[in-house]
Amino acid sequence: MIIFPWAEYHQTKMAIGSLLGWPWALSSLTVGLVVVACASAVVALVAASIRDQRRLSHIPGPRWMGWTNLAMARKMYGGRAHYDMLELERRYGPIVRTGPNMVLVSDPHVLRMMSAARSEYTRGPYYKAVRINPHVDNIFSMTDDRQHKTLKSKMGPGYSGREMGGFEPGIDKHVGAFVRLIERKYLSTAHEYRPMDLALKCNYFALDVISELGFGAAFGFLREDRDLYRYNALTRRFFPFVMFLSSVPSLLALLGRWPLNAMGPAAGDSAGFGRLMQFAAGFVDGRLAPGAKRGRDMMQAFVDAGLTRDELMQEVFVETVAGSDTTATAVRSTMLCLLGNPAALARLRAEIDTGIASGLVSSPVRDAEARRMPYLQAVIREGIRMFPPATGVLSKQVPAGGDVLLGHAVPAGVQVGHNICGLLRSRALFGPDADVFRPDRWLEAEAAEADPDRLREMVGAVELVFGYGKFQCLGRTIAQMELNKVYVELLRRFDFTIVNVDKPVRLLSAAMLIMDDFWVRVSRRDEAV
Questions:
Q1: Which DSSP helix (H) or strand (E) runs through 524?
Q2: Residue 459 is assigned to a structural domain of this protein
Q3: Is residue 15 part of a domain?
Q4: Which of 114, 178, 230, 392 has its CA 20 to 30 A from that of 208?
Q5: Coil, helix or strand for 147?
Q6: CATH number for the domain including 168?
Q7: Is residue 2 in some structural domain?
Q8: How many Cβ atoms sit within 10 Å of the Cβ of residue 476?
């Protein structure tokens, strides 16, 4: 027989009442009501969890991930999302349950269907995590299709480059600045060793390009050769935090409230995104001031299209962050792959050298010329395939009435995320050596007469990195032009050797694939042209 310690219970009850400053002790009835209320809340929570767990229990995936969003949040915060998402696809297939209300899909047809122009799928709560101002949407965070379509149509002319006579001169300017920085400070010889962090320099290059095109003047990272305002260092910390929030919908509702608002950037900060806020406010107010001189940049096109001050402020961030980190990641990860594959590097160099000798490659290489270089295009696609710059799940919400995805019924309101890492390492699509950097697979697919659709399917899968349909990336043309030029201009002049062969780089995969500590020895090619 169990005897309840009533004396200790009474003393505890009196102590609680005294601690709370109540003039009377808690009555047994009050305590009972509190206990019942707490128990009811727990029962309701457990019942809701069981309901949510059962609702998607027919979809493959780790059973424990069906009970909580924290499992996926931990993967996003842990810095290995690229590998974790690939492992999920390899183990469970093209559709995987990863949360109480979340599935990941790596099937390209489903991903295109959700983003098609007339699709009823909408962006899910995930996108709210990428608001810089938690109360104001940008082109990337908008979940209302009509608002997104309206803003995108206004911004389209700016991303066409017509305001500045095309993007090519601005990109050429900073490819040249990248080359001159290496020649000035980082060329090693038999008598002098000058190691260079190629990952960081790729960031500088991409930041200067997008600021030149977007705002009419470069930030000056390449000129100063330093991490201005600690932007790159603080960005590395920012993305894991944002991805953790994006994986837990209940936390997204707290954005803009204490304590999360205290953890975000502020306009008074002297570094990182806070410093970018100051730049954005000053730049936009200057451009909108009465009698202000017209710019020849993307921002002027946005002003002419009627974007509001708040919208312009948000787009400064979108251009800077999305327009630089993704391109920088593509460049440095592809360079890493090339330096680890001497045969591919030699074949690309041979194509470059032959093009120069025959007059088909100018200095600097023109975008149109680069597009006619088949092996260069294969290298670009293969580099993006191996390390997609953006690894976030970009979840879309199942419309009313639900849907059937890959043979599985999926109820309305479920979040369907992109497993881009799983798709781009698909052995069914890219072959049994899908984990190997091998640009030749693209030329082989083009030449294959037995399966003429294979190349189209491969290209279509890689192009999903830039989005699709109503959610296609506006800056795709800029990014592709940068990639078309930078490899040719670097590899025609320099030899690169990895310094730390045991650990060439440090990787952090959290929405963006962040890479640093990519130290190389750079020397001038004997036959540089």
A1: strand 519-524
A2: yes
A3: no
A4: 392
A5: helix
A6: 1.10.630.10
A7: no
A8: 14
pLDDT of residue 30: 62
Which DSSP letter does residue 66 get? G
Per-residue pLDDT tens digits for 206-238: 999 999 999 999 999 999 999 998 888 877 777
Amino acid of residue 194: R
Phi, psi of 484 (to 5 degrees): -60, -30
Contact 379, 487 (CB under 8 A): yes
Q: What are phi and psi of 523, to 5 degrees?
A: -135, 160
What is this structure's pTM? 0.87
Q: Can you give the residue range of the structural domain that contains 510?
A: 60-524
pLDDT per position as a tens digit, 305-328: 999 998 998 888 888 888 898 999
- Supply the DSSP symbol for 171: H
Distinct helix (H) and strand (E) counts, the chain: 23, 12
Number of separate domains in the chain: 1
Other beta carbons less than 10 A from residue 477's beta carbon = 15
DSSP state for residue 183 in the 8-state scheme: I
- Crossing angle of helices 476-491 and 342-357, in 10° steps, is 90
Q: Residue 468: CB partners within 8 Å, gap ≥ 6?
A: 111, 112, 115, 116
Q: What CA–CA distance (Å, rounded) separates 237 from 469?
A: 31
Query: Between β-strands 396-397 and 122-123, what pairing exists: parallel, antiparallel or unpaired?
Result: antiparallel
CA distance 224 to 177: 11
Contact between 334 and 376 under an 8 Å Cβ cutoff? The reply is no
- C-alpha 285/C-alpha 290 separation (Å) is 10
Burial (CB count <10 Å: 0-12, 13-18, 19+), residue 36? exposed
